[in-house]
Amino acid sequence: MRYFCGIDNGVSGSIAIISEDCSLVYYYPTPVKKQLNYTKTKQWLNRVDVVELDKILLPFKDYTNEVLLERPMLNPGRFKASVSALRALEATLITLEALGLPYRYIDSKEWQKAMLPAGLEKDELKKASLDVAKRYFPNIELKRDGDSLLIALYAKQKSQGKIDDQKTS
Question: Which of 40, 143, 152, 153 is deepest in the core (most CB within 10 A)?
Answer without folding.
Answer: 152
